UniProtKB/TrEMBL annotation:
<comment type="similarity">
    <text>Belongs to the ATP-dependent AMP-binding enzyme family.</text>
</comment>
<keyword id="KW-0436">Ligase</keyword>
<dbReference type="InterPro" id="IPR045851">
    <property type="entry name" value="AMP-bd_C_sf"/>
</dbReference>
<dbReference type="GO" id="GO:0016874">
    <property type="term" value="F:ligase activity"/>
</dbReference>
<keyword id="KW-0460">Magnesium</keyword>
<dbReference type="InterPro" id="IPR000873">
    <property type="entry name" value="AMP-dep_synth/lig_dom"/>
</dbReference>
<dbReference type="InterPro" id="IPR042099">
    <property type="entry name" value="ANL_N_sf"/>
</dbReference>
<keyword id="KW-0479">Metal-binding</keyword>
<dbReference type="Pfam" id="PF00501">
    <property type="entry name" value="AMP-binding"/>
</dbReference>
<protein>
    <recommendedName>
        <fullName>3-methylmercaptopropionyl-CoA ligase</fullName>
        <ecNumber>6.2.1.44</ecNumber>
    </recommendedName>
</protein>
<dbReference type="InterPro" id="IPR020845">
    <property type="entry name" value="AMP-binding_CS"/>
</dbReference>
<keyword id="KW-0276">Fatty acid metabolism</keyword>
<dbReference type="GO" id="GO:0006631">
    <property type="term" value="P:fatty acid metabolic process"/>
</dbReference>
<dbReference type="Pfam" id="PF13193">
    <property type="entry name" value="AMP-binding_C"/>
</dbReference>
<dbReference type="GO" id="GO:0046872">
    <property type="term" value="F:metal ion binding"/>
</dbReference>
<feature type="domain" description="AMP-binding enzyme C-terminal">
    <location>
        <begin position="455"/>
        <end position="529"/>
    </location>
</feature>
<comment type="subunit">
    <text>Homodimer.</text>
</comment>
Length: 543
């Protein structure tokens, strides 16, 4: 060990140290897989050689507009080829990619434009009206609009702005990519959902995204030739970093603009989709698809599901249909998924009920992370791994954000004690596997007892007539609060409130059973998460 004290001449050089960045995956793919399909969207197909050139032209076009390294370029786009290209073309000119939720209202979009200071905006023709409305509400300089038309979906150019394809055609295909000099440089800016106040700007660095791509390809796994369907929005944690991952394995991104069961089945049957990520609500749509929407296919589709714990009933229904589902977990602040329910062969012998209960666990840390566990947030100590005690999931590793843009206090609070505080409550099994009990804000405290809304939802999803459900706390004069269930029913079903409550009582302690059941369509985000805060607003009406 003595020689290690003298490392004279053992320095970082251009030959032995290159900043990590997912941009390197596409540069390599253009050389190694030049003729392989890179992006597919209906009649649109590009090889990796063409994909690289189009991303290069995008970088050139943005630079010609005055976008400088460190500037922000925003997108308001569905899952179309231009959005995949933006993930490489925007950072290739040194800029920071800010993908914006396409379902946001004008007021929040205006706030994001002002807060992120976007210099340019790639926007789908269909979304021009909300952008124009947002511009009227802005306080700062407005970004330059580049319109992305989608004639295949019936959205022809408006003629009011520079169109994306025209900009690419006029750009320089020999533009030299501006690679990061430091892997800590900012790569992307993603805004949280903002359900309580203004959304926070989460900043990603090149190193974290690169390591996320490596960990994902290992864990899923994603072999050479992976054919991946873009169900996860490219604005949501940058598609969980999957579009950055695909060039590494010579995979193909199959774009899906409208997420329906029919479109998913068609893509699997016609394009040979082998992988996709999706929220449990999408799995539910696949399970409950009408007969005319289904297609036959002869291979197993690998699925990562996240966004909410998948009900065991959904997993039990979908797996025999040809889908191998792995639950993963993460947040905007962690580039997407950072835990996985890694399967062990000895679980294959477990009874079906136990097997699917294990599959519904949150799991263990993925290989690119340092530590993910459940702690007592008050003193930052490990909770007992006894399958009962609950604590807050704490996360540490390279796939944690740099911090919140222009919000040092919130950043410091999130990183207090050397871990990222997730806000999610979980128990831990003796083998270390986490199981989310609830979001801290969603725990129901009734008469001093903590009740998990997720536990009740898992039971409700077993009811033969329930399509979707959400359980929230309802004010109660005696108990403080009690569970209230909101359910969407399957087509043609009409169970009574008493029937649903009686069903839950067969599986749960009396104090955990919903005291009220409301049948309605559930409000959802664009990624399929049920918006419980919207449901809570209605209590003055339903009490």
């Amino acid at each position: 060990m003595g020689w290690m004290r003298d490392e004279t001449g053992l320095d970082k050089t251009a030959a032995n140290f290159v900043p990590l960045t997912p941009l390197s995956h596409l540069r390599r793919a253009a050389q190694v897989f030049p003729d392989t399909d890179a992006v597919v969207y209906k009649g649109f197909r590009t090889t990796y050689a063409q994909y690289y050139e189009r991303c290069t032209r995008l970088a050139s076009g943005l630079a010609a507009l005055g976008v400088a390294p460190g500037d922000v370029v925003a997108t308001l786009l569905p899952n179309v080829p231009a959005h995949a290209e933006a993930h490489f073309g925007v950072p290739a000119c040194g800029a920071v990619l800010n993908t914006i939720n396409t379902r946001l209202e004008a007021n929040t979009i205006a706030y994001i434009f002002d807060h992120g200071e976007a210099k340019a905006l790639l926007v789908d023709t269909q979304l021009l009206p909300v952008v124009e409305e947002a511009f009227q509400l802005m306080e700062g300089a407005k970004p330059t609009i580049i319109e992305v038309a989608d004639t295949q979906a019936g959205h022809t150019p408006s003629g009011a702005h520079t169109e994306y394809e025209d900009m690419l055609a006029a750009a320089d295909p020999a533009f030299e990519w501006i690679m990061p000099q430091d892997e800590w440089e900012s790569l992307a800016l993603n805004y949280t959902s903002g359900t309580t106040g203004r959304p926070k700007g989460v900043v990603y660095h090149h190193r974290g995204a690169y390591l996320m791509t490596m960990g994902t390809a290992i864990s899923w796994p994603m072999p050479r030739g992976t054919r991946y369907l873009t169900i996860v929005p490219l604005f949501h944690c940058n598609n969980w970093n999957h579009v950055w991952t695909l060039p590494m394995v010579g995979g193909t991104a199959i774009c899906c603009r409208d997420i329906t069961a029919k479109n998913i089945y068609d893509a699997i049957a016609d394009e040979g989709v082998s992988h996709f990520g999706a929220a449990p609500i999408v799995l539910n749509a696949i399970v409950n698809a009408k007969e005319e929407e289904r297609r036959e296919f002869d291979h197993v589709v690998q699925v990562f599901t996240a966004g909410a714990p998948p009900p065991a009933a959904t997993l039990r229904a979908i797996e025999p249909m040809g889908f191998h589902v792995t639950q993963v977990y993460g947040l905007t602040e962690t580039y997407g998924h950072v835990t996985e329910c890694l399967w062990h062969d000895h679980w294959d012998a477990e009874p079906e009920e136990e097997r699917y209960a294990i599959k519904a666990r949150t799991g263990v840390l993925m290989p690119m992370m340092d530590d993910i566990t459940s702690m007592d947030a008050d003193n930052m100590t490990q909770i007992p791994m006894d399958s009962t005690t609950q604590g807050e999931i704490m996360i540490r590793g390279n796939c944690v954000m740099k911090g919140y843009l222009k919000n040092p206090d919130a950043t410091a609070e999130a990183f207090e004690g050397g871990y990222f505080h997730s806000g999610d409550i979980a128990l831990q099994h003796p083998d270390g596997y986490l199981k989310i009990a609830d979001r801290a804000k969603d725990i129901i405290i009734s008469g001093g007892e903590n009740i998990s809304s997720i536990e009740i939802e898992g039971v409700l999803m077993k009811h033969p007539d329930v399509l979707l459900c959400a359980v929230v706390a309802m004010p109660h004069e005696k108990w403080g609060e009690v569970p209230c269930a909101f359910v969407e029913l399957k087509e043609g079903a009409n169970p009574s409130e008493a029937d649903i409550i009686a069903f839950t009582r067969e599986h749960l302690a009396g104090f955990k059973t919903p005291k009220k059941v409301v049948v309605q369509e559930l409000p959802k985000t664009s990624t399929g998460k049920i918006q419980k805060f919207e449901l809570r607003k209605g209590f003055k009406i339903i009490e």
